[in-house]
Amino acid sequence: MRVGFIGLGSQGGPMARRIVEGGYDLTLWARRPASVEPYADTAAKVAATPAELGAVSDLVCLCVVGDDDVRQVVVGDDGVLAGMKPGGVIAIHSTVHPDTCREISEAAAAQGVSVIDAPVSGGAPAVAEGTLMVMVGGDEADVERCTPVFATYSDAIVHLGPLGAGQVAKILNNLLFSANLGSAMSTLELGDALGIARDRLCEVINRGSATSKAIGSIAVFGGSLEGLAPIAGALLQKDVRHAASLAADASAPEGTVFTVADTALTLMHHSR
């Protein structure tokens, strides 16, 4: 399988490297030439446009930031679909709204191209260890075709259902992580008021029954969200907004929607 990859950031970059080091014919595209320079020591090729990348790929993996970024690189005169041949597959690793995946799928289906959503969790360290979590939604046959490629960086590829199911799972995961961040910060602030040093309380919680990835992330950044917010704050806020939209569309209990909104406000407050 010939693979194209777009989105060579802190997570996508290591994923692309694992793919080419796994022996796959890999083509890259990036807006900035500097983004592809780290792959000069690999067999990866570089395309001039997303359309050129699509023309030489059986599978195109997207790991760009948000919904509009996905649309820009897929649809349009120079987009992936302008070059991709019938029978190809586009895998959306980005965390976006399920409706965006369905929108892209409708455009792709018009020329015989399939779309699956495959958001990921774990970050660059998990990619390096080959333990990234991949949450997949889409047709089972398409998922099976892509699984060997995903396996170059993941040992946990979970097929959750039809197109969009992977995004729902990832958004719910990030919603809970955001809520955990808010709860952890509130607990640490209460500890301040009660005279417990924040670094020592982080140590205790990390070793105790209340440990979580959220408190671990806060501890890494000195017991605050100041270091984490520039890295993940805006992305988590986006995902919380998506969660609120999904909850509203599903006519979830009113309290669920209010809880989502409250989590978003808490995170925004601590990210300033």
Indicate the radius of gyration in whole angstroms.
Answer: 20 Å
Biggest sheet: strands side by side, in what order? 3-2-1-4-5-6
Given the C-alpha coordinates, what overall shape results? globular
Q: Report the biggest beta sheet as strand number plus sense, adding barrel if it closes.
A: 6 strands, parallel
Number of strands: 9
How many helices in DSSP terms?
12
Structural class by sheet pairing and helices: alpha/beta
Would you identify the regions where 5 or more consecutive residues have pLDDT less than 50? none
Strand content: 5-15%
Q: What is the averaged pLDDT score?
A: 90
Order of helices and strands: EHEEHEHHEHEEHEHEHHHHH
Structural overview:
The chain is of the alpha/beta class. It contains twelve helices and nine strands. It has helices at 12-21, 50-55, 67-74, 80-83, 98-109, 123-129, 140-150, 165-193, 198-207, 213-220, 229-249, 254-271, and strands spanning 2-6, 25-29, 45-46, 59-62, 89-92, 114-117, 120-121, 132-137, 154-161. The strands form two sheets. Strands 3-2-1-4-5-6 form a six-stranded parallel β-sheet, with helices on both faces. A three-stranded mixed β-sheet has the order 7-8-9. Helix 5 (98-109) links the parallel strand 5 (89-92) and strand 6. Helix 8 (165-193) crosses helix 11 (229-249), helix 8 (165-193) crosses helix 12 and helix 9 runs antiparallel to helix 10 (213-220). It starts with a strand and ends with a helix. The mean pLDDT is 90.
Write out key terms for the chains shown.
272 residues, alpha/beta, 6-stranded parallel sheet, 3-stranded mixed sheet, 53% helix, globular
